[in-house]
Amino acid sequence: MPQNITAVFNTYRERLTNFIRKRVSSLEDTEDILQDVFYQFTRMDSIENPVEQTAAWLYRVARNRIINHQNKKHDAEMPVYYDDDSDDDDFVFQDIADVVFDTEVTPETEYLRSMIYDEVKTALAELPQEQREVFELSEYSDYSVKEIAEKTHTPINTVLSRKHYAVLHLRKRLKELYADIMGGG
Asked: Which of 86, 90, 142, 166 suits a disulfide with 131, CB 3.0-4.6 Å?
């Protein structure tokens, strides 16, 4: 059964506007994307093709529209946060940290958190077992480098090296995710 379009609009308009506004350069672009998202919703939410998870669907369409918009305005107003320079990494990882540690529970933050957690889980699974073990002991179990070295019967420098390579791999994967979300990938 189709949903009440007015109720959906009233429920999600402000949060969706904020989500879009943080990612585009002008209020006009925000309004255009928001209008397009709700237009798509009215077309999709019919008796033949109802939208099951409204919030997730709206944010996914908004994200895709933002990416399309940024691809069209590739050289325009949007600042580029994804780059190989470590100074630019600070922007990427600050944005990711803002989402992960945001105490506000919205469909947007929940969706983005799940994307980030899935990406970290996938990236950890790709690591060699030794690097993954060192990273997990250090970050999830709060072991010190010395404690990890003792537990794994590994020299301290090797532990440091394994953690370094694990962190580099995770950073690379999170930068790729960020670039995909922000339209750079």
From this structure: 166
**What is the residue range of 20's domain?**
5-78
Residues 30 and 101 in one domain: no
The helices-and-strands tally (H runs, E runs) of the chain is 8, 0
Q: What is the pLDDT of residue 21?
A: 86
- Same domain (yes/no): 85, 168: yes
* Tens-place pLDDT, residues 151-185: 999 999 999 999 999 989 888 887 887 777 665 44
pLDDT at 36 over 80: yes
* One domain for residues 70 and 87: no
Kindly state whether residues 92 and 172 are assigned to the same domain: yes
Q: What is the mean pLDDT of the chain?
A: 76
| Local structure of 56: helix, strand or coil | helix
Q: Are residues 175 and 89 in contact, defined by beta-carbon separation less than 8 angstroms?
A: yes
Q: What is the 3-state secondary structure (H, E, C) of the chain?
A: CCCCHHHHHHHHHHHHHHHHHCCCCCHHHHHHHHHHHHHHHHHHCCCCCCCCCHHHHHHHHHHHHHHHHHHHCCCCCCCCCCCCCHHHHHHHHHHHHHHHCCCCCCHHHHHHHHHHHHHHHHHHHHCCHHHHHHHHHHHCCCCCHHHHHHHHCCCHHHHHHHHHHHHHHHHHHHHHHHHHHHCCC
